[in-house]
Amino acid sequence: MTDESGVSMEKLVSLCKRRGFVYPSSEIYGGLSATWDYGPLGVELKKNIQEIWWKEMTRTQDNIVGLDAAIMMHPKTWEASGHVANFSDPLVDCKKCKTRFREDKLEQQYVDNKECPECGGELTEPRNFNLMFSTQMGAVEDSSMKVYLRPETAQGIFVNFKNVVDTSRVKIPFGIAQVGKAFRNEITTKNFIFRTCEFEQMEMQFFVKPGTDEKWFEYWMEARKAYYTEKLGVRPTHLQFHRHGEGELAFYAKDAFDIEYKFPFGWEELEGIHSRTDYDLSQHSKFCGKEINYLDQETNEWYIPYVIETSAGLTRSVLIALTDAYEEETIGVDKKGNPDVRTVLHFHPDVAPVKVAVLPLVKKDGIDELAKSIEKELREDYNTFYDQSGAIGKRYRRMDEIGTPFCITVDYDSKEDDSVTLRFRDSMEQVRVKRSELSARIKLEMKNYKRVNK
C-alpha cells in the first residue's frame, strides 16, 4: 500500500537500511524476529525526538519533573498492577500452516468459523499467552527470585510517587515523566518498527485532585495532539482521535483516547491518553501495606490522587517521523526523457538527524580546506556532515534522501568574498550568505520553518 506522498513500507524499510537509519538486529546471524538496531542516522533521529519530548514535557512546564526507574522491579509491583494475572492475549494457531494470531485481532468471520485467514486451515481453541518476559535474579537458581523485564514504564513512576512528593516539593496538580525501555513478548510483530518486543516509551503520569480529572483529561488530549503538529511537524490531516469503546477500555480506566496516525497500512495508535483514576496508587498501597496518599496543604485534606496518563512510543514516533516526512517528488525529466524523481524526507529541522551538510565544489585549490573549517565552526551548534565525493547534484540528492534541511556549498567565489551558497531542502532555493552570518541565518530558518510539501 502506498499513500499520496509515494511512501510504502517496502520503500521505507529499504531507505532505512540503505541510509543507516534502521538495521535488522543480529543480521549476520540471520536476524532475530521483531528486533531492530538503530544506525548512525537512526540513533540521531531517535535522540532528537526524545529531546524534543523531554523539553516539551518537563523543561517548559512548571509542574512536571523527571524520573529514570529501574527496568527490573520487585515482582510484587506486577502483581499489584494486575500484569501477572491479566497481562495476556488470547492466542490461536493454525493447525495447517502453523501461523499464530491474536484472536481479538481476527475478523469475526474467522473466529466464528475457526478458520485461518491465511490458508483456510482449522484454528485451535484460544489460550492465554502472557506477554511479560521473565528471568531469575540471584546466583543460584534454587534460591533466586523470579523477576520481570518491565512491560511498561508507568509502574516505576507510581512506586516512586511518595519519594518524589517528599523530595521535590511538588504540589498537585503535578506530573512525573520518564523515557525508558519496555519489553513485551508480542504474539504478532509486524510493520517494521511499529510493533516490536523491545521498545522505548515516553510516558508522563499527571496527578490531580479527584473531581478535576475530567478537566485535565481534556487539557492533555489537546496538548498532546498539538505537540505532533507543532513540535514534530506531522501533517494534521494524518492525525485523529479514537475513543476507547466498550470492550476496549481497561477495567481500571474512566476514559481513554488514542491519537492515531495514518500509516501506509492504515490508522494505528501513536499515543494513548488515559484517565486511570486512583487505581494504581491504591493497588500499590494495598500490596505494600503502606499509605500512598497526598496531603493537600491548602485544605488540610488527605486523598489518593487521580492520574491522567500520556503514553507514547519513542520507537513508534521514529516511524511516524520517517513516514510523514517521506515524499517522492517529480521535479522534471532526466537526460533520457524519463521523469526525474527525487526522494526527500521533509523532517522538521529540529527532528532531522543531520542539520547542515557542508559540500566543497571541488577537492583542490584550498576549497576543501575552507569547507572543512566552516564545517568545524558549525559543529558547535548543529549536527553537521561533510561530503566531498561525487557531483554536487548527486550530493544534494543524498542529503535530500536523509532529510538534511540545509546544504552549504563552498566554491571559488567563497575564497574571494567570504560567502557561501545556502541551499534549502524543501524548496531547493539557493542564496548567497556571508560566512560570518551563516550560523545566525540557519538558526533563524529553523525557528521560522514551515513545511511546504503536500
TrEMBL record:
Ranges of residues in domain Aminoacyl-transfer RNA synthetases class-II family profile: 10-360
Any one cellular-component term (Gene Ontology): extracellular exosome
One family name in Pfam for this protein: HGTP_anticodon
Domain of life: Bacteria
Transmembrane region(s): none
Binding, ATP: 184-186, 194-199, 269-270, 313-316
Gene Ontology BP terms: diadenosine tetraphosphate biosynthetic process; glycyl-tRNA aminoacylation
GO molecular-function terms, A-Z: ATP binding; bis(5'-nucleosyl)-tetraphosphatase (asymmetrical) activity; glycine-tRNA ligase activity
Signal peptide boundaries: none
Record-listed E.C. numbers: 6.1.1.14
Keywords noted in UniProt: Aminoacyl-tRNA synthetase, ATP-binding, Cytoplasm, Ligase, Nucleotide-binding, Protein biosynthesis
Residues the record lists as binding substrate: R102, E152, F199, E200, Q201, M202, E203, E309, T310, S311, A312, G313
Function: Catalyzes the attachment of glycine to tRNA(Gly).
Protein name: Glycine--tRNA ligase
Primary gene name: glyQS
